[in-house]
């Protein structure tokens, strides 16, 4: 079973993130970058399926040069090879353009049975790339899974959202996204880290994928940012020491605000 | 005025609050038309309540396939109606965003993700990185598709006719869709859903154990609130992950957010700082949560919270 895993380098959510003044895009230099936590789970699930069903695991990442760190991490966990879509033209791409590029990149891998991604990146948080990929590739969307199994050419999954759990069934090939509950990702072994250095990573541009540079990036975006500003920080309001009447004081405040 | 489509979120014949919020927002842009995708008979059941919030028309797109397949029936329904609409509003829930994203590529239109407010000219206000930045954006191509965050717009009633329209039917290509073989409802008891709730009471590391989370739950129940937890509390095993508020959990913007024993790390603030009013209780006077709280009490949450619970109960009689 051949699997494509999508990974993404994101700013660490524990550090302060900001937008660049020039074009309102994410200032990716200002924050520490890490492999998005959820990607490691996507890689882990791909490796477990590979162990059970054989085949090859290909990592695809789109992003600036330092996305190679995320790719290396995935390879050191055990993925076989990687494709890195790196192009200046991609700067500022919206979620639709991103999905279109990824769909084309997936198209370069032969006989793909399954595409696996994290359910939501922690920076963009649109959480829709896997669904959009299913639309673009014309494949079943089996997303937000806490559990996945493959039997023959059928994939079954347990989708967990705020609405509850839905038990899904579809035929392969399919697009899957996984949630935090899916598994505990392995740590790369020393051997894995060494082996990763020799694994093939092909770096390609949007032109290689037959996409015109004007279709991606800021120029290709279907939405336009009119203005962006740091939110004026919330100012601290009233603060009191509890001297046995803290709860009553909050109640008074809430009454004053017509909240109770 | 032109038609603005609102995809209705409903469960067991009941409309979710966010759909009323969307209808309210849609009135600013044009004439709201509710789109109900579901089992036969659903739309006629909820037609009146949709009309109360301004739906001039209610499109009933109903069949067994509409419930038996994931996402695609909703995309099909909206794609069929979009050519005559000036905008499409969908709730910024997990499924709502999946539907909106797919619809955007299907009808080759722009999509504004996760807006907290909509202006009359179609400009969407986004609050990103957990409210640290405010961005105003507009769709520059096609029929604008806008996903609106629950709690972003306040629902206001404005009665309209809600004329039932059953002209649209859809077909699903089973080879390209996932079949839903069964469903299980959320086992959340009687509490409101975290992202839908007008009041959220959250506990952090300061709560100290899973058992003691009952203090948080009791206050939440007195206020009719949802219960949330910080990442620290979830990582310590005090409360299940699905209730985590913050960067790697849920983003909430309720009318009132009560933080108990939560220090207020960036991680957590990212998920709650767009709340209208924030109340914090923490032992540590230096806790960053106080920097964003409208009302803060420096003290032991185990003294303050039960007293507040009592006061709220008294007032509610």
Automatic annotation (TrEMBL), chain A:
Cofactors demanded by this protein: FAD
Pfam families to which the protein is assigned, alphabetical: ETF (PF01012)
UniProt keywords, alphabetically: Electron transport, Transport
Entry keyword annotation includes Electron transport: yes
InterPro entries: ETF_a/b_N (IPR014730), ETF_b (IPR012255), ETF_beta_N (IPR033948), Rossmann-like_a/b/a_fold (IPR014729)
Domain of life: Bacteria
Transmembrane segments: none
Annotated ranges, domain Electron transfer flavoprotein alpha/beta-subunit N-terminal: 23-213
CDD domains in alphabetical order: ETF_beta
Self-association state and partner proteins as the record states: Heterodimer of an alpha and a beta subunit.
Stated family: Belongs to the ETF beta-subunit/FixA family.
PANTHER family: ELECTRON TRANSFER FLAVOPROTEIN BETA-SUBUNIT, ELECTRON TRANSFER FLAVOPROTEIN SUBUNIT BETA
Function: The electron transfer flavoprotein serves as a specific electron acceptor for other dehydrogenases. It transfers the electrons to the main respiratory chain via ETF-ubiquinone oxidoreductase (ETF dehydrogenase).
Protein name according to UniProt: Electron transfer flavoprotein subunit beta
Organism from which the protein derives: Lentzea flava
Gene for this chain: fixA
From TrEMBL, chain B:
Tagged with keyword Electron transport: yes
Assembly, per entry: Heterodimer of an alpha and a beta subunit.
Family, similarity comment: Belongs to the ETF alpha-subunit/FixB family.
Organism: Lentzea flava
PANTHER family, sorted: ELECTRON TRANSFER FLAVOPROTEIN ALPHA, ELECTRON TRANSFER FLAVOPROTEIN SUBUNIT ALPHA, MITOCHONDRIAL
All residue ranges annotated as the Electron transfer flavoprotein alpha/beta-subunit N-terminal domain in the record: 4-184
Protein name per Swiss-Prot or TrEMBL: Electron transfer flavoprotein subunit alpha
Cofactor(s) of this protein: FAD
